[in-house]
Write a structure and sequence with these properties.
With about 300 residues, the protein is of the alpha/beta class. Helices cover about 40% and strands about 15% of the residues.
Length: about 300
Amino acid sequence: MARVEYREMTCKSALNRVEGMPFRWSLNPFRGCVHGCQFCFALPTHRYLDLGIDDFSRVIFVKTNLPEVLAAELSRRAWKREQVAIGTATDPYQAAEGRYRLTRRCLELFTRFRTPVSLVTKGTLVLRDLDVLQDLTRRAGATVCFSVPTTDHEIWRRTEPGTPPPEQRLKVMKRLVSAGIRAGVLMAPLLPGLSADPDQIERTVRAAADHGAQFIGSNVVHLGPDVRDYYFAFLEREYPELLAGYRRLYGTKYAPKPYQITVERRVQEAKATAGYGEDHHRRVEPPAEERQLALPIGAS
């Protein structure tokens, strides 16, 4: 990982209105993320700051006045205490949070103003804020989603080089659940030919279940134009045997619907085996799109 530069900035607003999602509001204490995930959909957003896609993990903007702005927004009479999603674009518990404590201060404000939150992270620093999360859970509601796309160390090291190991995330999740926090796993995004393979899905679901995940969700990676080029360059370096298959699978931003359905069925079957929901015994045949990827996406 390259040396990281932190730039302090001020923001005019804290809460972002969201359209087309299960939640209407989001909050991100930082712009950019040191985790270096090769597939991150937010990679191109630094271009709005006249920086390149590679700078997303090298130049981190810290919204130093975020708690003050948030306090003003939450205190408005028009605020309806709707759920706020934290960490939708960058991880709220990346390394900078250890110094700036912006996420913690925002959680304290959400508790004060009785506003429920959902939070997505790959970080383990969230355990530091257990006391605040417990208070927020009692007063308004809090859900912590741990992003764990895979438990395979080789895939993890290559695709998420700046993140804590998967087992560390799961151990922290287990401690939160034991402390009364609603917490679970998002297997997101699943990568065709890697973490989306049946055996990989089964291993990840089993690990999540063994650590007490209260829910398990998933989705298949989507690749916008800029992210697609970036991710394909990564594949060319690390998994060249998968590149031709990915080119066939991702002619557009999203993988074909039949492939997405097949992966979702794999997840549901693994969850059922682990005790989540109804059991399903029917074997799922790979769709034509995946068979064309050479067992699956295994060769060109």
